Q: What sequence folds into this?
């Protein structure tokens, strides 16, 4: 019951933050799942909630997406997400890099946790450092952007930062930018979830249906709340807040505490 409450609350508030930042729902929600499940399974379960939330948003704005960008960016993203998910399944079986004792408990730093920690730290810096914020990618690099976004989406459920960085300069309107991003995220989710499927049996998916439904409904509720709060919250303030949270999470994963 405790995990249902904690994960649902996290899903609600991170869904709100998704409206204000370049990070997707899974970027923050995954580490919360990781408090109760192994990291690879946490990524897979987070993918279910992330996908359901994207399908909901796709129904609202999907018709405004750019078909040309979907092809140039989305197809490479889908193909690369297979590679990312394949790498994830391979590295989770690797032995711990380091183990240590603290507060009477044993903590271990594993390859997958360290990789995800580095990615989270990088994306948090991407949002707050002026030098990195100036990095822009033209439309002629959409294929490369799709590959990077898809690979990291498959590996760690993190694709929003790369996707936004490449799509923002592709000449799309605000509505088309949001709609295209949602559809691409949904396609990558379908791809990586098909690869993660082998992990669902070991995670006891049927035993966690209540958890997944609760988290999904909470995320949808957060999406509604985020839309209503959009005009009242400054974008920069939420960017900094999310970045600080990700730095804390990345430190927790990188040190093996989470």
A:
């Amino acid at each position: 019951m405790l995990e249902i409450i904690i994960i649902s609350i996290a899903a609600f508030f991170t869904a709100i933050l998704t409206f204000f930042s370049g990070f997707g729902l899974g970027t923050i929600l995954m580490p919360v799942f990781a408090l109760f499940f192994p990291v690879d399974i946490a990524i897979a379960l987070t993918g279910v909630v992330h996908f359901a939330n994207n399908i909901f948003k796709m129904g609202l704005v999907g018709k405004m997406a750019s078909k040309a960008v979907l092809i140039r960016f989305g197809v490479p993203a889908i193909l690369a997400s297979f590679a990312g998910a394949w790498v994830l399944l391979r590295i989770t079986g690797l032995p711990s890099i380091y183990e240590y004792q603290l507060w009477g408990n044993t903590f271990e730093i594993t390859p997958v946790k360290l990789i995800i920690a580095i990615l989270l730290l990088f994306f948090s810096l991407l949002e707050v450092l002026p030098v990195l914020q100036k990095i822009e990618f033209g439309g002629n690099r959409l294929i490369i952007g799709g590959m990077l976004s898809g690979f990291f989406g498959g590996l760690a459920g993190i694709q929003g930062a790369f996707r936004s960085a490449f799509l923002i300069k592709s000449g799309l309107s605000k509505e088309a930018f949001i709609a295209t991003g949602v559809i691409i995220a949904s396609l990558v989710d379908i791809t990586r979830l098909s690869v993660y499927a082998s992990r669902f049996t070991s995670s006891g998916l049927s035993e966690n249906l209540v958890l997944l439904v609760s988290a999904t409904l909470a995320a949808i509720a957060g999406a509604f709340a985020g839309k209503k709060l959009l005009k009242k919250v400054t974008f920069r303030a939420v960017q900094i807040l999310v970045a600080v949270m990700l730095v804390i999470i990345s430190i927790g994963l990188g040190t093996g505490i989470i």
User: Anything to note?
Assistant: Residues 92 and 112 are 6 Å apart (CA to CA). The longest strand covers residues 98-102. The radius of gyration is 17 Å.
